[in-house]
Amino acid sequence: MIRQEVGNRQGGLTIIVSGSGVADNASRMRDLLGLTDEQGQMRDLVRVIARERIAPLAARVDETETYPADQLAWLGEQGLMGLYIPETYGGTALGTLAFCLAVEEIAWACASTAVIYLVQYAGGFPIVMAGSESQKRRYLPRLAAGETTAAFSLSEPGAGSDAASLTTTAERRGDRYLLNGTKMWVSNGSHASVITLFATVDRGRGGHGVTAFLVEPAFPGFSLGKLERKMGIRGSPTVAIHLSDCEVPVENRLGEEGEGFAIALRVLDGSRPAVGAQAVGIAQAALDAAVAYAKERRQFDQPIAAFQGIQFMLADMAMQVHAARLMVHHAAALVDRGAPATALESSMAKCFAGDAAMRVTTDAVQIFGGYGYTREYPVERFMRDAKVTQIYEGTNQIQRVVIARELARA
Ligand code: COS
Fold first, then answer.
1. Are 357 and 389 in contact (CB under 8 A)?
2. How far apart are CA 131 and CA 212, in angstroms?
3. What angle in degrees, to the nearest 10, is found between the helix axes of 96-109 and 260-296?
4. Paired residues of 246 in beta bridges
5. pLDDT of residue 10
6. What is the average pLDDT score of the chain?
7. pLDDT tens profile 365-406
8. Among 82, 84, 99, CA closest to 39
9. d(Cα 324, Cα 351) in Å, to the nearest integer?
10. Residues sharing a CB contact under 8 Å with residue 319, sequence separation 6 or more, in sequence order
11. Quick check: CB of 398 below 6 Å from ligand 1?
């Protein structure tokens, strides 16, 4: 049995969450969704690493804002960094659903490690999708081996939801482009060896001028900006990037000039379910902690789990987590099947799961009462970590815009 100590209070309660109940639920889910043996085995492997090795370090990662280098190395050693990368380039090609299963398990243990892990997809998948043969050979094997990490850089100080209005320019000069501008909110930007970065070759063309580049931190004119101090996912560095006549070789352009915005949106179609999976993992951790606490905490001579008010809260939380997981798996499976368009399902999964995680973690804090509001228990961290899943990879308001547009298009 896998056991994780999710909180300890000197002289008071110690809540132990056992993994067995969750594993039983997971087995039921596996049957329901018909996961392949490979997907199931991979998830079990990630679960053991996440619960035995990553979870015990999560509170410290949060408290000290420490980059979880060891945790990522453990995942890399097990060949888990290349799930989305074809075997030709050193990956295992298990696909988006497998990737989401892994993200959920990691997020259950440590949301900071999970976001760095999932950003590998947003940073590396564009190379799989739109890269030339030489770009694939240059970058993918090292990413798959976990020797290096990737990042994805679309947002700017003045271009968040309205991503097509970005103003970082790329001007071609012979065999290179000169990039100028400032990028913002780059998850893992300070640690990545390659950043899929979007700039415009012609601001007058709006989204049709946006072009993708594979930028390395060693390129002349590249510098890191402000490191954000965040509410949650505090072990995951989020930085600004300054580009001042940054020299990017033409061979590092990803796709053709003007194809960048479509590349970005297609990558987001694949990465949004993974953010949903992160939200599901955080929410499941909060639910597990709340159930364990409700069974242990006694008031009025009985465990608080015996009160219907608490039971109904737990039941609603479980339904939210379950529904979110199904939506994430469905969207990811569609991506794996090569469905021509998955924007609707990807945005629904990300939005629903993010909102569910916020509700579930908030209710978990409520069930823990005063203890939940302290840092002695992990639920306040879960709540802080959950918040960002409603914001990044497109706010949940933007997801609703995408969903409504897709409905109107039908
Ligand atoms: N896949 C591929 N192409 C897509 C697409 C998708 N999922 N969705 C739209 N497109 C295409 C459209 O067909 C359109 O092509 P044409 O101009 O050739 O017709 C083009 O992309 C522009 O689409 P649209 O007009 O819908 O773009 P808008 O600027 O109006 O809005 C939104 C696009 C708002 C959905 C987009 O900017 C967005 O997702 N914003 C949030 C960005 C984000 O997630 N940022 C955080 C992550 S990075 S830190």
1. yes
2. 10
3. 40
4. 179
5. 33
6. 93
7. 999 999 999 999 999 999 999 999 999 999 999 999 999 999
8. 99
9. 9
10. none
11. yes
Mean pLDDT of the 333-359 span: 96
Q: Of 123, 159, 83, 150, give the one whose Cα is nearest residue 264.
A: 123
Residue 122 Cβ contacting ligand 1 at under 6 Å: no
185 lines ligand 1 (CB under 6 A): yes
The amino acid present at 282, given as its one-letter code, is: I
Q: What is the DSSP string of 220-260?
A: TTEEEEEEP--SS-TTS-EEEEEEEEEEEEGGGEESSTT-H
DSSP 82-97: TTTS-GGGT-----HH
**pLDDT per position as a tens digit, 4-47:** 444 433 333 344 444 434 444 555 454 456 789 999 999 999 99
CA of 176 to the centre of ligand 1 (A): 27
Q: Is the CB of 288 under 6 A from ligand 1?
A: no
Residue closest via CA to ligand 1's atom 8 equals 265
- Is pTM beyond 0.85 here? yes
Amino acid identity for residue 42 in this structure: M
